[in-house]
Amino acid sequence: MKSDIIIIGGGLLGCATAYQLSKLTDAKITLIERKDIASQATARAACLLTKSRTKLALMQMVQETYNAISELQQIFNDDLGYSQVGSITAVSSIDSHSAIEQLCHVASEFGLETQWLESDEVAAKLPWINADTITKALYVPTDAYIDSALLCNAYANAAKLNGVSIMTRVGVEAILSEANKITGVILSTGERIDAPIIINATGSWVNRLMHPKYGALGTTPVRSHFWISESKPDIFPINQPFAILPDAKAFTRPDVGGLIIGIRESKCISYDSSQWPNDIEDVHFSPDNGWMTLSENAALFEKYYTDIRSLGMAHYVAGPSCYTPDSMFLIGAMETTQGLYVAAGCCGGGVAMSGGIGKLMAEIVLGKECFVDKNLFNPMRFKNIDPYSENFRNQCAEARSNKKGG
Amino acid sequence: MFQIVFIKQVPSSTKIKLDPVSHTLVRSGVKMQANPYDLHAVMAAVEVKKQLGGKIVAVTMGPPSADAVLRQAIMYGADEGILVSDVLFAGSDTWSTSYVLSKVINHLGKGDILWFGKQAIDGDTAQVGPGVAAQLSYPQLTEMTKIVDLDEVSITVNKRTDFGYNIVKVPYPVVITVCKEANVLRSIALNDWERATCSSIQMMNASQLDVDVHKVGLKGSPTRVVGIAVPSVKNETVWLDHPARLGQIIKDLIDNEK
Amino acid sequence: MKSNNSLIRLNEKSCTNCQSCIAACSYGALTFDVYPQFDFEACTLCNACVDTCPNNALHLYIPEDRYNQELIKDGDTIWVVVELNHGRILPVVFELIAEANRLSIQYRQPKKVVALLMGEHSEYLIDHLFKYGTDQVYYAHHPRLNLQLDEDYASVLADLAIKHAPSIILVGATSFGKAVSARAAALLHTGLTADCTALHIDPQSENLIQTRPTFGGNLIASIETKRHRPQMASVRQAVMKTLEPNPKAKGETIKISIPDDLLLSNVQIIRNEIRNTIFSLSDAQVIVAGGKGMKTKANFDYLNELASLLGGQVGGSRVAVDKGWITHDKQIGMTGLSVSPKLYIACGISGQIQHMSAVTSSDTIIAINNDPDAPIFQYAQFGILGNVEEILPLLIAELKMGEKMVDVFQFEL
Ligand SMILES: Cc1cc2nc3c(=O)[nH]c(=O)nc-3n(C[C@H](O)[C@H](O)[C@H](O)COP(=O)(O)OP(=O)(O)OC[C@H]3O[C@@H](n4cnc5c(N)ncnc54)[C@H](O)[C@@H]3O)c2cc1C
Ligand SMILES: Cc1cc2nc3c(=O)[nH]c(=O)nc-3n(C[C@H](O)[C@H](O)[C@H](O)COP(=O)(O)OP(=O)(O)OC[C@H]3O[C@@H](n4cnc5c(N)ncnc54)[C@H](O)[C@@H]3O)c2cc1C
After folding, report:
1. What is the DSSP letter of A338?
2. pLDDT tens, A245-282?
3. Which domains does chain C have, with CATH numbers?
4. Substitution target from A31, A34, A35, A36 for chain C, most C beta carbons within 10 A
5. Residue A141 Cα to chain centre, angstroms
6. CATH for the stretch A84-142+221-318
7. From the candidates C58, C197, C270, which should be mutated to test the interface with B, based on the most B CB atoms within 10 A?
8. Where do the domains of chain A lie?
9. Cα-Cα-Cα-Cα dihedral of B91, B95, B100, B101, to 10°?
10. Each residue of B49-98: pLDDT tens digit?
C-alpha cells in the first residue's frame, strides 16, 4: 500500500489535521487509528471552547476552530452539540485583577466582544454562585462548548468526503525511515504502508513511536478531571455561561441540569507513558474517584458555592491531558528526519485549539505561509530531555498546576 | 432496628480481554468496587432506618483492601463497617462464605433485617443470601423490588417472581435480597465521602468468629472450579438483509432467555 | 519460589518473568522480586494470576484436608425438583428429566431418575413425569406445599435428601428454583452450582462436572463438587433438550406425607400478581435505545412499541437527551446509566466510546444504522444496514406476527 501522507492517531488533533489538509491538497492521505475515532483523551474532555487567551496566536488558533465548526455544521447540517452559552471569568483577589485585565486587553486587541459584569449580573447568570466574593468578572458572550466526540467525528467524516482514507482498529507499530528520510509505517497487522510524510498525532502515546529513534518530545500525560453534579436545574440552568474561577483553580459548565466542576489540584499527577496500556479505559486515574482532590480544594471552591460539600456528584471523569513545560503545543517538523511531523502536547486545550492546530500543521506540511508564528510551537524546543523521567514529568505537571484560566 | 447489609467487593468491569496472539486471558488488575446490587440494599436499609430508626452495619468478607467497599456503603448511609478478613477465608465458595457470614451474625447477636444484593455481578450465583438465611434459620425474601409496608415487627415487600410479583409479609428477623429497581442510587456528596473516610472499620478474623476452619477457605469449600474457558467470542458482525430475519433472531434470543 | 507453604505455586523453570500475573492481580497481592512474590494476606485465591500466565507456570495447589477425605458414599439416584406454576409443570422440569437420563448412562452403573413433586392434589401430574422419562416419582404432599414457600420447599428437599441420599439434585434456574436450591444446599452442607448450561459426568471420578457462565457471561467455568453429596445444580431454562414423550411409560410413585413441623415458614403471601415483570432500565433484560439517527421525538414511539413487545425498556444516547427525545434519567453511557441487558438494540446510535463503555457487558448487541462504517457495528453481533424509519415498522410487524406463537405453552397437559 502507498500513501502521500499518513496521519497516525484519530483523536481531535489527528482528525482536525486530516480535515484541514484535505481542504488544501489533493494528495492521498491516510489516517490510522488504533482504536476508534475519538475514543481516547478526546472522549473525556469538558469541551470548553474558551476564546480569550493570554497570547494572540492562541486566540487566532481558537478562532480557526470556531471557523471549522461552522463549516462542519453546514456540511452535515448538524449542530454537533455546539452550545453558545458565553463565559464568565470571575476573580476575587486583587492579585488576579491584573491578570484578568491583561486577558481583557488581549481579547479587545483581537476584536473579541467582552463585557465587565457587576456582581448582581453575575448572580443573575450563575444562580448558584456566591456573587459577593467576586470582585471582577469578564463576560465573553460568544464563548461556547461542544461535544468533542461529535466534533472529532465531523472532522473525520468531512476529511473522508474530501478523499482521506480512514483506517480504524489497526495501530502503527513503527515508523520507518531510510537515510534520515521517512519511508512509511508498519501496522499491527504486519502490513506496511509506504509514505514520504508522516504526522504523529498520537496524544499520550506520542513518544512511543518517536523516542529514542527520532528524538524526544517534551510532553507527558497529566491527569485532568471533572465532576458532574446531580441534576438541579433550578440553580444550574442548562443555558448558563461556563465559568472560569482562577482563584479557585476551577471551572464550571452546565450539563443537562447538573454542573460540571473541574478542579486543578496544586500538585498535578503525571504518568510515565512508556508503561501505558493502549486504551485509557485500562488506566486507573484515581483510586478514590477524585474525592481526595475535591476534598483538598473544597475550601477554595466553597467561597463561590457554599454547598459544595453536600452537593451530590453523579459522575467523575478523568483522563490524560498532554502538558509541556511551557504549556505550548508541539506542532511542526522533526528536524531529525525529513518527512516526519508531530501534532501533540495539547495542554488541556485540544478541543478549543483543534481547528487551529490542524490548520497550522497542514500549512507546515505543505510548505505554505503560516497564519501564526510556527516557531512558538517548535516540537524540538526542549533539548536533552528524557520524557519518561520523573524529573521531566514533574515539570509538565507543574505547568498544569500553575496554569491560570480554563 | 438493627440492620446488617452485606457487601461484596467485585471488579468494576467484568469484561474479559484475550491476548490476540496467545489467546490467554488478559486480566489486567481491574479496579474493584462494591457490587452494584449491594448498594441498592444499603439504600433499602436507609429507607427502613428513616422510618424505624436504629443502626445499619455494613459487613464484607474479603482481603484487607476490601475496606473500600465498606466505606462505599457508609457513603450511602451505613453507620459502621465490619471487615471479615483472614487468610483462612481465601478461596471460599458460596457455602463457606454463607457459613462465615452467619457466624458474624451470631457474633453480633441477632439482626432484624439482613440485606443482600440480588446477586453479585462477578459470580452471578444469588446463593449467599439464602445460604445465610438457611444457616441462621431465618426466612428469606429474594428479589425484592419495593418495600410496601413496615412496622416494628414485620416488613411487607414486593418480590419479583418468574411470572410477576408477590406481595409478601414476614416478621423479623429476615434475610432480603434486593433488585436494582427497589430504589434509585443517590449521588454521593463530599460530606458523605469525608464521613466514610474518617470512619474506623472493625476487623474480625476466624478465631474471633469461632468458625470451624475445616469449613472455610478453598479447602473447606464443597465446590471447586476445575476449569475456566472463554466463550467463543464474536468476530464479525452478522449482517442481516431483512427486518423479518432480525425479528426471527430477536424472538430466538428472547425465547432462550425465558 | 518463596511461597512454598502457600496455595499458589510457581514453577520457576516455566516463568519468563513476563509479569503478566502481576498486572492481573486486582488486590495488589503480587509484587516482583526476581520472581513473582505473593502476599497471602491480600490474596483471595481468585485465580486471575493462574489464568493469565501464558506459560502455565502458576498452579493453584490445594492440600487435601483429612477432614474432607472420607468421601460420602455416592447415591444411586438423580433427582429433579418439580416446579409448578398454577398447576402446570414448568418446561424446564422436562428438560432436566431428559438431562438426568443422559447423565445416568454416563455412569458405569446407571442411576435412577427421580422426580420430586411437592404439593397437594397434584397426582394428575405424575403421569406426565413418567411420560417424559422419569423412573420414579417422590410425591411429597401437604397442603401448605401448594403455597410454594422457599423455606418449606427447601426443608422438605433437604430432609428427603438426607433420608434418601441422591447423588445429584437438579433444579430449574428459575427465580424460585434458585432461591430454594441455595437454601437447601446450605442446609445440606453441600455444593451448588447455579445457572448451569451444560452438565456431564467425569468418566474417571464419576463426579458431576457443571459448566456455567460467570463474570457476566464473559467466562465459562467448570465446577465440581468433589466430596460432598448430593451434588446440586440449578440449570438454565431452555438449554437442555427434552426427550420424545412416551405415552405408555409408567413408573413407581412413592407417596410421602410431610409432617407439619417440617413446614415452618412464617412468610405470608398477601397477593400474587401475574403480569409482565417490569425491570427498571438499569436492570432491564432487553433495552431498545435510540440516538440521533432516530431524527424525531415521534420516531421514539417505534422504540416504545418495540420495547413493550419485548418486555424491555427504552433508553438513549446523550444526543437523544439533548434533543429532548428522552429524559436525562434514560441516558446510557459514561455520564449516564451503565446497563448489562441480555439484549441491547441500538437504533441510530453511532457507538461513541462514551456510550459504548456502558453497554459492552450486554450479552447480545444488535445495531440498526445506515452507515456501514459506524463504530457500533464493531460491537454488534447482528447488524442491519438501513434507515430506522423503514426498518423499525417492519421489525415491529414481524414481532407482532409471532406474538401468539411465543405464548403457546409447549407442553399441553
Ligand atoms: C478531563 C479532561 C478535560 C478536558 N477539557 C478540555 C476542554 O474543556 N477544552 C479543551 O479544549 N480541551 C480539553 N481537554 C483536552 C482535550 O481532550 C485534548 O486536548 C484532546 O482530546 C487531545 O486530542 P489528541 O488527538 O491529541 O489525543 P487523543 O484523543 O488521545 O488521540 C490520540 C489517538 O491516537 C491513537 N493512537 C495512539 N497510538 C497509536 C498508534 N501507534 N497507532 C494508531 N493510533 C494510535 C489513540 O488511539 C488515540 O485515539 C480535556 C482533557 C481531559 C482529559
Ligand atoms: C464528557 C462526555 C461525556 C459523554 N457522556 C455520554 C454518555 O453518557 N452517553 C452518550 O450516549 N453520550 C455521551 N457523550 C456524547 C457522545 O460524545 C456522543 O455525542 C453521543 O454518544 C452520540 O450519540 P448518537 O450515537 O446518538 O449520535 P451520533 O454519533 O451522531 O450518531 C447517530 C448515528 O445515527 C445514524 N443514522 C442517522 N440517520 C439514520 C437513519 N435514518 N437510520 C439509521 N441510522 C441513522 C448515523 O449513521 C450515526 O451513526 C458524552 C460526551 C462527552 C464529551
Report:
1. B
2. 999 999 999 999 999 999 998 889 999 999 899 999 88
3. 8-60 (3.30.70.20), 77-262 (3.40.50.620), 281-408 (3.40.50.1220)
4. A36
5. 21
6. 3.30.9.10
7. C270
8. 5-66+148-219+325-392, 84-142+221-318
9. 120
10. 999 999 999 999 999 989 999 999 999 999 999 999 999 998 888 999 99
